[in-house]
Amino acid sequence: MSSVMKDFQDSSHLYGSNAPFVEDLYEQYLQDPASVSDAWRAQFDAWQGAGKDVPHSPVIAAFERLAKEGGSAPGVATSAGDGKDLKVLQYIRAHRVLGSRQSQLDPLKRMERDLVPELEFAYYGFTDADLQREFSPGSWQGQKGPMKFGDLVAAVKKTYCGTIGLEYMYISSNEQKRWIQKRFEGTLSTPSFTAEEKRGILERISSAETLERYLHTRYVGQKRFSGEGGESLIPALDTVIEDGGGMGVKEVVLGMAHRGRLNVLVNNLGKVPADLFSEFEGKHVHTKDSSGDVKYHQGFSSDIQTPGGTVHLTLAFNPSHLEIVNPVVEGSVRARQHRHGDHTGDKVLPVLIHGDAAFAGQGVVMETMALSQTRGYRTGGTVHLIVNNQIGFTTSDTRDARSSLYCTDIAKMIEAPVFHVNGDDPEAVVFVTKAALDFRMQFHKDVVIDIVCFRRLGHNEQDEPFVTQPLMYKRIAQHPGTRKLYADRLEAEGVIAAGHADELVTSTRAALDAGKPTNAKIRYGLKPALAVDWAPYLGIDWRHEAITAVPKPKLHQLAERLTTVPENFKVHPTVERILATRREMGEGKVALDWGMAENLAYASLVDTGNPVRLSGQDCGRGTFAHRHAVIHDQNREKWDSGVYVPLQNIRQGQANFVVIDSLLSEEAVLGFEYGYSTAQPFELVIWEGQFGDFANGAQVVIDQFIAAGESKWQRLCGLTMYLPHGYEGQGPEHSSARLERFLQLCAEHNIQVVVPSTAAQFFHMIRRQVIRPMRKPLIVMTPKSLLRKKEAASPLEDLATGTFQNVIPEVEKLNAKKVRRVVACSGKVYYDIVAERARRAIDDIAVVRIEQLYPFPHEEFAAEIARYPAAKSIVWCQEEPGNMGAWHRIQHYLQRHLRADQALSYAGRASSASPAVGYLALHNEQQKALVEQALTWDAKASQEAA
């Protein structure tokens, strides 16, 4: 082997992970053959052969063959015969991958930057003597053609090791990587703003800092979670909004936690300072229907004038649970995109603002990112802005805040590029923000901007940070502030005159003193064309009547569409039998099971113009194989037209029906559906838990948004939750949907909690949720065994007449005067009670089903009790343990309607730490005992169980 060939093989990029280097060089050759050395050009010419190579297949095949055979590449030579052409490519690639580790990102300059040997040219055998030599820079997107190595080193360092640090080489798409390289290498990561643009950035920074300091002196000691130290967020956010408007964005929906929120409200969204001051001074406008929330959790909406027209801004309400707002924003964006007919995400843009510790630490960030490119949840990419104050809440260094090098490393999971930037360089912040937005609009995927800054004050304004971070806060105390640094820089450049920066502060303070807006681009009093009018849904009482029955001819027609599949569509034999049976149900020949009643309800809604969105794990088929809303062709894959959705084929021009088998997430998916439903009141939005207790993983969404959102923030929401619930002997984790937790959250008619026991009830309940102009969350304890239980099936007539019954009276023709006991219950246990009553031929015990537990139907229940004048015993029977289920909440409602001669008792499982036992035999024994107790009540046993 010649020495040249040995040099080539020793440094070859054809082996292992080094192949991309030569591919870079080859792509450079394809763009301009003269841009590579004569030796490489001759080799690439030889590999191409006679034809022109547009795809890389001939060369890639040669690479693979050489790697497999372990041979050399005959005829390959380098410009100097020492292999350094290839090492130049290695040097460039090392900076593309690792350059951020030596970037000048920390405004406090606390930590020495990592020494990364791969970023030093000596690591590759270069010496100072090589700095004047010329080399081909391969796919470098700056200067084309041969460059002096010294010039290339300077360009690479300026691009990747300045105040901007880039991470993107893990992205699979070469197109996306090339785009980033062209954007940053082509400019050497150096902004080129006009003097006017620079003055605009300074004005925004000045407004941000002045507001923080104004509040600090005017409202001493009051919590506000200052954003001082991270002021560059304000011009960055302005850039997203204004540049987005220039690209055709019509709406921007923002989500953020409390840090810096007041500044964003005033300086970006245009909240009138006088209104903010009133909140600080406790002069809120109270209403009897609102509990309110603290000022740094409040949402807001406004309109801003941009180069492309008016953009509507919405800041989502958010509790102190930081990142939990992420999926809520995404859901709201998806709904708004539907209203705009925006299928690509070009008109409605989600923007999420994070803290560094929360972004790295909270699982909902990962769950939300995992949604970003899925069919049912994608929004065309999110712009993430991280206000990285390097401290989080109380952690003193990154060893306690995360296990990864950067707080942004979670974003690599979805191959989102990360642009780190020093917050003390506002021009660099705006520069990367522009690039990030352009990337998002080009590729419709998430992008992350990590603004490395600091936190001037403690976690809140009552916190003393020197107690736990003394050295860090000594540096912060000596820091002049981003505004001062930038103002001095512009004055030195001659962009502003001496004193101009102080004038900006003075004018902002004057506006604040007068309580006037600080953002001149806000347009007050506008109403967006596609804004939802919530007026028809306000003040509707839960007893509002709704006609939910559907005429029989229409039911026949809908059933026929639901049970018809296209020709040459091979249906699974089991599903084929189900469809055949459902045809008979639709014809009135067989009682309707749960799945058919449910599908008919959806069909009736989309037929009359009401969209339906159903999501959750296993929703298409149904966890218990009962729904079959999606039918699969047995001869084709589902991504090859192998699925058919009857509910999407009810009639021409029908409303949309979407069913989504979600990823294995509860918190993010439920948050997404909540956000969606708050922006789409005319659509039935449903989240189904695979099992009811899976909702435990989304408890923050339930507590902070679903149950309390209307009271705290006046946000109406018609979200429906299906939670399989019922004691079937499946153990602690698959029995209880934690009914007691939902009832504990009930107050002020905030949510509806329903336990339907028949197919017809389910049908009417679904339709009522849309047809009745009341938008309250609906929590449904859905059954498991009842899905196929004959006694729970309903005749077609029950769908064509009647409505949802909050209370179902005794169905047997008992002699009311002889009834000595009334058993009240909900759900599956009803069928166990009446079956045992029939077996024993008992005729003096009435069984009443309470189908809606909240708001409690007092009138209906009182009427049922009054039907039985001889009944001295009223029993509440439930399957759940005494400390769970409905008992502790419902007993007070039941007691209210008892006569003085009546006693209320409990029949059910004894109180327990676990929701259910894990042994089937013990389950059966307990079930039998509680039914026995309901029918042969024992005072002592009832007291012990309760």
Assign the structural class, choosing from mainly alpha, mainly beta, alpha/beta, alpha+beta, or little secondary structure: alpha/beta
The CATH class of the largest domain is Alpha Beta
In which order are the strands of the major sheet placed? 3-9-10-8-7-4-6-5
Q: Overall pLDDT, averaged?
A: 89
**CATH architect. name of the largest domain:** 3-Layer(aba) Sandwich
Which strand-content bin applies to the residues?
Answer: 5-15%
What is the count of distinct domains? 4
Task: Please name the fourth-level CATH homologous superfamily of the largest domain.
Answer: Thiamin diphosphate (ThDP)-binding fold, Pyr/PP domains
User: How many DSSP helices?
Assistant: 33
What is the CA-based Rg, rounded?
33 Å
Helix content: 25-40%
> N-to-C terminal Cα separation, in Å?
90 Å
Number of strands: 24
CATH topological fold name of the largest domain: Rossmann fold
Backbone shape: globular
Largest sheet: 8 strands, mixed
Q: Any low-confidence stretches, pLDDT <50, length ≥5?
A: 1-18, 70-80
Keywords: Glycolysis, Oxidoreductase, Thiamine pyrophosphate
EC number: 1.2.4.2
GO molecular function: oxoglutarate dehydrogenase (succinyl-transferring) activity; thiamine pyrophosphate binding
Enzyme class: oxidoreductase
Structure characterization notes:
The protein is built from 33 helices and 24 strands. The chain has 946 residues and is an alpha/beta fold. It folds into four domains: 3-160, no CATH class; 195-283 and 297-455 and 463-513, Thiamin diphosphate (ThDP)-binding fold, Pyr/PP domains (Rossmann fold, 3-Layer(aba) Sandwich), CATH 3.40.50; 552-797, Rossmann fold; 807-945, Rossmann fold, CATH 3.40.50.11610. Strands 3-9-10-8-7-4-6-5 form an eight-stranded mixed sheet. It has a seven-stranded mixed sheet with strand order 14-11-15-16-18-17-22. The protein has a five-stranded mixed sheet with strand order 19-21-20-23-24, sandwiched between helices. Strand 9, helix 16 and strand 10 form a beta-alpha-beta unit. The N and C termini lie far apart (90 Å).
